[in-house]
Specification:
The protein is of the alpha/beta class and 305 residues long. The protein has two domains: 109 residues, Rossmann fold, CATH 3.40.50.12080; 143 residues. It is built from 14 helices and eleven strands. It has a four-stranded parallel β-sheet, covered by helices on one side. Strands 9-10-11 form a three-stranded antiparallel β-sheet. A hairpin with a 2-residue loop joins strand 10 and strand 11. Helix 4 crosses helix 10 and helix 9 runs antiparallel to helix 10. The radius of gyration is 20 Å and the shape is globular.
Length: 305
């Protein structure tokens, strides 16, 4: 990492790298550990209450070996640890939820789920293959494109099946409920249902309509009575997947906002541009294609692909 970038990172995560200001702050120290959703929740908590010092830390997938010592020092003085499920020895580092909780001996542990929901984007999936990276343009795979590659077809395949859209939404919500139960987390699945067409921007980027009330459940679990406060901006805005009218109609959300194109910050890209960029990328990456098909077999069947 170049010195300027390192300096900027240290300024951005000053609470991690420079613990001295914490010594002069009598408020309880709160740390949120997880993926990008964790920082979004921290922002809402910070906007909601000044009863805690919500320290900004990098998302778990951006933490490096050099970050571990300052993180452990921060955890040792944390009063509240809000944590998403992270497996032990994530990226070869002691960053699993149980591992970081063990290094925060005085902290109240509040477990929160990783919110993933594909109901609004039934073809869009995540396939984490660190050895091959993410596809170009957007870090998401389209099942229609995946099957085009697998079958040697010329164009992506797909059918508009309302029952299929509903089935994918049910599978996704059931999966979220199952993860909540398995990891003993606060509930978010009901918030996803209640948010309707505003539930997600992408399958793994919940909208404010989910993040804000989920942060409220965190503060409530910490004994903070303040109602959650929306910070007044979209919390995970960098990528927004299409939301098609026929999908919303099938889910009984026909009056919700639609989006015909991908939105990448200020850019608008149609599916055809994404497909053109990604088709070539899959050449020589058969394991990615196989993994996507295996992990999403039920969704593929439900959609009639």
């Amino acid at each position: 990492m170049s010195p300027p970038a390192d300096a900027a990172r240290r300024r951005h995560y000053a609470g991690l790298y420079d613990p001295e200001p914490l010594a002069d702050d009598a408020r309880p120290v709160l740390v949120v550990h997880g993926i990008c959703q964790a920082e979004a929740l921290r922002v809402v908590i910070e906007a909601t209450t000044d009863e805690v010092r919500a320290v900004r830390v990098p998302p778990v997938h951006e933490l490096t070996a050099d970050d571990v010592p300052p993180l452990l020092r921060l955890l040792a003085r944390a009063d509240v640890l809000v944590a998403q499920p992270v497996r032990d020895d994530f990226h070869g580092l002691p960053l699993g939820t149980d591992q970081v909780a063990a290094r925060a001996p005085r902290a109240q542990l509040v477990r929160i789920p990783v919110v993933r929901y594909t109901g609004l984007h039934p073809w869009t999936v995540l396939v984490r293959t660190p050895w091959m990276g993410d596809p170009p343009v957007v870090p998401y795979h389209d099942l229609r494109t995946i099957l085009t590659v697998a079958r040697g077809a010329v164009r992506p395949v797909g059918h508009r099946r309302p029952d299929g859209y509903r089935a994918v939404a049910r599978l996704s919500l059931d999966g979220l409920r199952g993860r909540e139960t398995a990891h003993g987390t606060l509930r978010a699945s009901d918030l996803v249902e209640d948010a309707g067409a505003r539930a997600t921007l992408t399958p793994n980027h919940p909208g404010n309509a989910v993040l804000v009330p989920l942060a409220g459940r965190v503060t409530e679990a910490c004994g903070i009575a303040s109602p959650p406060r929306d910070p007044g901006r979209t919390l995970l805005p960098s990528v927004r997947a299409p939301v098609l009218p026929e999908v919303l109609d099938a889910l009984g959300l026909g009056d919700g906002p639609t989006r015909e194109t991908w939105a990448l910050d200020d850019r608008r890209l149609g599916d055809d541009e994404i497909v053109a960029a990604q088709l070539g990328w899959y050449a020589g990456r058969g394991p990615v294609v196989d993994a996507a098909i295996a992990r999403n077999a039920r969704e593929i069947e439900a959609l009639g692909l």
